[in-house]
Write a structure and sequence with these properties.
Number of strands: 0
Number of domains: 1
Order of helices and strands: HHHHHHHHHH
Radius of gyration: 19 Å
Shape: globular
Helix content: over 70%
Protein backbone atom coordinates (compact mmCIF):
# COMPACT_ATOMS: atom_id res chain seq x y z
CA UNK A 1 0.00 0.00 0.00
CA UNK A 2 2.83 2.35 0.90
CA UNK A 3 4.64 1.67 -2.39
CA UNK A 4 1.43 2.21 -4.36
CA UNK A 5 0.87 5.54 -2.62
CA UNK A 6 4.43 6.65 -3.44
CA UNK A 7 3.96 5.56 -7.05
CA UNK A 8 0.76 7.59 -7.34
CA UNK A 9 2.47 10.65 -5.85
CA UNK A 10 5.37 10.34 -8.29
CA UNK A 11 2.95 10.02 -11.20
CA UNK A 12 1.07 13.10 -10.03
CA UNK A 13 4.29 15.11 -9.77
CA UNK A 14 5.35 13.99 -13.22
CA UNK A 15 1.94 14.94 -14.63
CA UNK A 16 2.13 18.37 -13.01
CA UNK A 17 5.62 19.00 -14.40
CA UNK A 18 4.63 17.74 -17.85
CA UNK A 19 1.57 19.99 -17.84
CA UNK A 20 3.73 23.03 -17.14
CA UNK A 21 6.06 22.18 -20.01
CA UNK A 22 3.19 21.56 -22.42
CA UNK A 23 1.29 24.73 -21.48
CA UNK A 24 4.21 27.13 -21.34
CA UNK A 25 6.50 25.95 -24.14
CA UNK A 26 5.24 23.18 -26.41
CA UNK A 27 1.92 24.92 -27.08
CA UNK A 28 3.54 28.28 -27.87
CA UNK A 29 6.36 26.81 -29.96
CA UNK A 30 3.87 24.83 -32.02
CA UNK A 31 1.43 27.68 -32.56
CA UNK A 32 3.87 30.62 -32.61
CA UNK A 33 7.18 29.39 -34.10
CA UNK A 34 8.48 32.97 -34.22
CA UNK A 35 9.19 32.79 -30.46
CA UNK A 36 12.02 30.36 -31.27
CA UNK A 37 13.73 32.92 -33.49
CA UNK A 38 14.23 35.29 -30.57
CA UNK A 39 15.72 32.60 -28.34
CA UNK A 40 18.23 31.71 -31.06
CA UNK A 41 19.13 35.24 -32.15
CA UNK A 42 19.70 36.75 -28.70
CA UNK A 43 22.82 34.77 -27.70
CA UNK A 44 24.12 34.33 -31.25
CA UNK A 45 23.90 38.05 -32.09
CA UNK A 46 26.30 38.96 -29.29
CA UNK A 47 28.51 36.05 -30.30
CA UNK A 48 28.79 37.36 -33.86
CA UNK A 49 29.55 40.90 -32.70
CA UNK A 50 32.38 39.71 -30.44
CA UNK A 51 33.79 37.45 -33.15
CA UNK A 52 33.74 40.21 -35.77
CA UNK A 53 35.27 42.82 -33.44
CA UNK A 54 38.02 40.47 -32.26
CA UNK A 55 38.54 39.13 -35.82
CA UNK A 56 37.85 35.60 -34.58
CA UNK A 57 40.30 35.69 -31.66
CA UNK A 58 37.52 35.44 -29.07
CA UNK A 59 35.38 32.86 -30.86
CA UNK A 60 35.72 30.30 -28.07
CA UNK A 61 35.00 32.86 -25.35
CA UNK A 62 31.98 34.06 -27.30
CA UNK A 63 30.59 30.51 -27.58
CA UNK A 64 30.99 30.09 -23.82
CA UNK A 65 29.23 33.43 -23.35
CA UNK A 66 26.42 32.27 -25.61
CA UNK A 67 25.85 29.24 -23.39
CA UNK A 68 25.78 31.38 -20.24
CA UNK A 69 23.46 33.98 -21.75
CA UNK A 70 21.09 31.30 -23.06
CA UNK A 71 20.79 29.62 -19.68
CA UNK A 72 20.52 32.84 -17.68
CA UNK A 73 18.01 34.39 -20.08
CA UNK A 74 15.93 31.21 -19.95
CA UNK A 75 15.62 31.47 -16.19
CA UNK A 76 15.00 35.22 -16.30
CA UNK A 77 12.24 34.70 -18.88
CA UNK A 78 10.43 32.65 -16.26
CA UNK A 79 9.37 35.92 -14.64
CA UNK A 80 7.43 37.13 -17.67
CA UNK A 81 5.77 33.77 -18.33
CA UNK A 82 4.77 33.23 -14.71
CA UNK A 83 3.43 36.76 -14.44
CA UNK A 84 1.42 36.31 -17.64
CA UNK A 85 -0.12 33.04 -16.43
CA UNK A 86 -0.73 34.47 -12.96
CA UNK A 87 -2.25 37.84 -13.85
CA UNK A 88 -3.95 37.14 -17.19
CA UNK A 89 -5.09 33.53 -16.78
CA UNK A 90 -5.19 33.32 -12.96
CA UNK A 91 -3.33 30.02 -13.21
CA UNK A 92 -1.44 30.58 -9.96
CA UNK A 93 -4.75 30.81 -8.07
CA UNK A 94 -5.70 27.38 -9.42
CA UNK A 95 -2.29 25.93 -8.63
CA UNK A 96 -2.38 27.32 -5.09
CA UNK A 97 -5.75 25.67 -4.46
CA UNK A 98 -4.42 22.34 -5.75
CA UNK A 99 -2.00 19.91 -4.06
CA UNK A 100 0.79 21.22 -6.30
CA UNK A 101 3.63 22.81 -4.32
CA UNK A 102 5.45 25.94 -5.46
CA UNK A 103 8.60 23.82 -5.91
CA UNK A 104 6.90 21.47 -8.38
CA UNK A 105 5.26 24.38 -10.18
CA UNK A 106 8.54 26.28 -10.49
CA UNK A 107 10.44 23.16 -11.56
CA UNK A 108 7.95 22.41 -14.33
CA UNK A 109 7.95 25.98 -15.56
CA UNK A 110 11.77 26.05 -15.44
CA UNK A 111 11.91 22.96 -17.63
CA UNK A 112 9.58 24.67 -20.08
CA UNK A 113 12.07 27.55 -20.36
CA UNK A 114 14.82 25.02 -21.15
CA UNK A 115 12.59 23.70 -23.95
CA UNK A 116 12.44 27.24 -25.36
CA UNK A 117 16.22 27.44 -25.33
CA UNK A 118 16.88 24.09 -27.02
CA UNK A 119 17.29 25.55 -30.55
CA UNK A 120 19.92 28.05 -29.36
CA UNK A 121 21.66 25.42 -27.24
CA UNK A 122 21.67 23.03 -30.20
CA UNK A 123 23.43 25.60 -32.39
CA UNK A 124 25.91 26.41 -29.63
CA UNK A 125 26.68 22.72 -29.08
CA UNK A 126 27.48 22.37 -32.78
CA UNK A 127 29.76 25.43 -32.66
CA UNK A 128 31.43 24.10 -29.51
CA UNK A 129 32.04 20.75 -31.20
CA UNK A 130 33.86 22.34 -34.14
CA UNK A 131 35.59 25.30 -32.50
CA UNK A 132 36.25 24.27 -28.89
CA UNK A 133 38.57 21.56 -27.58
CA UNK A 134 36.68 20.53 -24.46
CA UNK A 135 37.92 17.60 -22.43
CA UNK A 136 35.44 15.35 -20.62
CA UNK A 137 36.25 17.04 -17.30
CA UNK A 138 35.96 20.45 -18.94
CA UNK A 139 32.56 19.55 -20.41
CA UNK A 140 31.32 18.40 -17.00
CA UNK A 141 32.57 21.58 -15.36
CA UNK A 142 30.91 23.72 -18.02
CA UNK A 143 27.65 21.81 -17.56
CA UNK A 144 27.79 22.34 -13.80
CA UNK A 145 28.35 26.07 -14.26
CA UNK A 146 25.43 26.35 -16.67
CA UNK A 147 23.11 24.45 -14.32
CA UNK A 148 24.03 26.73 -11.42
CA UNK A 149 23.60 29.94 -13.41
CA UNK A 150 20.25 28.69 -14.70
CA UNK A 151 19.06 27.92 -11.16
CA UNK A 152 20.23 31.36 -10.06
CA UNK A 153 18.15 33.08 -12.73
CA UNK A 154 15.16 30.80 -12.04
CA UNK A 155 15.14 31.85 -8.39
CA UNK A 156 15.29 35.52 -9.40
CA UNK A 157 12.59 35.14 -12.04
CA UNK A 158 10.21 33.21 -9.78
CA UNK A 159 10.52 35.63 -6.88
CA UNK A 160 9.97 38.74 -8.99
CA UNK A 161 7.03 37.16 -10.83
CA UNK A 162 5.09 36.76 -7.59
CA UNK A 163 5.41 40.51 -6.93
CA UNK A 164 4.59 41.63 -10.46
CA UNK A 165 1.08 42.86 -11.15
CA UNK A 166 1.33 43.49 -14.90
CA UNK A 167 2.87 41.65 -17.82
CA UNK A 168 4.41 44.86 -19.21
CA UNK A 169 6.20 45.41 -15.92
CA UNK A 170 7.40 41.80 -15.93
CA UNK A 171 8.85 41.96 -19.43
CA UNK A 172 10.62 45.21 -18.54
CA UNK A 173 12.21 43.61 -15.47
CA UNK A 174 13.10 40.49 -17.46
CA UNK A 175 14.94 42.49 -20.12
CA UNK A 176 16.65 44.60 -17.44
CA UNK A 177 17.83 41.51 -15.55
CA UNK A 178 19.16 39.85 -18.70
CA UNK A 179 21.05 43.02 -19.65
CA UNK A 180 22.53 43.54 -16.19
CA UNK A 181 23.64 39.94 -15.71
CA UNK A 182 24.42 38.55 -19.16
CA UNK A 183 25.30 41.50 -21.41
CA UNK A 184 27.16 44.10 -19.33
CA UNK A 185 29.38 41.68 -17.30
CA UNK A 186 32.37 40.07 -19.08
CA UNK A 187 30.52 36.96 -20.22
CA UNK A 188 31.44 36.96 -23.92
CA UNK A 189 35.03 38.04 -23.35
CA UNK A 190 37.72 37.62 -20.65
CA UNK A 191 37.54 39.68 -17.48
CA UNK A 192 41.05 40.97 -18.21
CA UNK A 193 39.58 43.09 -21.01
CA UNK A 194 37.83 45.22 -18.37
CA UNK A 195 39.99 48.10 -17.06
CA UNK A 196 41.06 47.67 -13.45
CA UNK A 197 39.02 50.52 -11.93
CA UNK A 198 35.85 48.82 -13.24
CA UNK A 199 36.93 45.19 -13.02
CA UNK A 200 35.90 44.93 -9.38
CA UNK A 201 32.37 46.03 -10.25
CA UNK A 202 32.06 43.02 -12.55
CA UNK A 203 32.35 40.75 -9.54
CA UNK A 204 29.00 42.03 -8.30
CA UNK A 205 27.38 39.79 -10.92
CA UNK A 206 27.23 36.00 -10.42
CA UNK A 207 27.64 35.56 -14.18
CA UNK A 208 31.20 36.88 -13.88
CA UNK A 209 32.14 33.93 -11.66
CA UNK A 210 30.28 31.59 -13.99
CA UNK A 211 32.15 33.00 -17.00
CA UNK A 212 35.52 32.63 -15.27
CA UNK A 213 34.82 28.99 -14.42
CA UNK A 214 33.43 28.25 -17.89
CA UNK A 215 36.37 29.90 -19.67
CA UNK A 216 38.77 27.99 -17.42
CA UNK A 217 36.96 24.71 -18.20
CA UNK A 218 37.25 25.45 -21.92
CA UNK A 219 40.96 26.27 -21.64
CA UNK A 220 40.66 29.99 -22.46
CA UNK A 221 41.56 31.13 -18.96
CA UNK A 222 43.90 29.68 -16.38
CA UNK A 223 42.68 29.98 -12.80
CA UNK A 224 44.55 28.99 -9.68
CA UNK A 225 43.04 26.29 -7.48
CA UNK A 226 42.19 28.91 -4.87
CA UNK A 227 40.40 31.15 -7.37
CA UNK A 228 38.48 28.19 -8.82
CA UNK A 229 37.36 27.05 -5.38
CA UNK A 230 36.35 30.60 -4.44
CA UNK A 231 34.36 31.05 -7.67
CA UNK A 232 32.51 27.75 -7.12
CA UNK A 233 31.76 28.62 -3.49
CA UNK A 234 30.44 32.09 -4.38
CA UNK A 235 28.30 30.77 -7.22
CA UNK A 236 26.81 28.01 -5.06
CA UNK A 237 26.20 30.35 -2.11
CA UNK A 238 24.49 32.90 -4.36
CA UNK A 239 22.25 30.20 -5.86
CA UNK A 240 21.27 28.75 -2.48
CA UNK A 241 20.68 32.22 -1.01
CA UNK A 242 18.39 33.21 -3.86
CA UNK A 243 16.34 30.02 -3.42
CA UNK A 244 16.02 30.72 0.30
CA UNK A 245 14.78 34.21 -0.58
CA UNK A 246 12.35 32.68 -3.09
CA UNK A 247 11.03 30.32 -0.43
CA UNK A 248 10.66 32.95 2.29
CA UNK A 249 9.81 36.15 0.43
CA UNK A 250 7.92 35.14 -2.72
CA UNK A 251 4.21 35.90 -2.61
CA UNK A 252 2.89 32.46 -3.38
CA UNK A 253 -0.35 31.91 -1.47
CA UNK A 254 -1.17 35.50 -0.67
CA UNK A 255 -2.07 36.32 -4.29
Amino acid sequence: MFNEKNLVQKRNRFSQILAAVLVNSVYEMRNYPIVLINTVLSPLSFLLVIVFVSQGALLGDAIVGGFIMSMFSAGAALQGDLSHLKNDFKLQDMVVSSPTTWQIYMFGMALSEIAYSLPALFVLVILAHYFMALTLIGALELTGVLVLIFLTSVAIGFTLSTFSSDIVQSFAFSRLISTLFSTIPPVYYPLTYVPLPYRYLAYLSPTTYAAELAQNAAGYLTLSSTTMALDWIILIVVTVTLFIIARNKARWREI
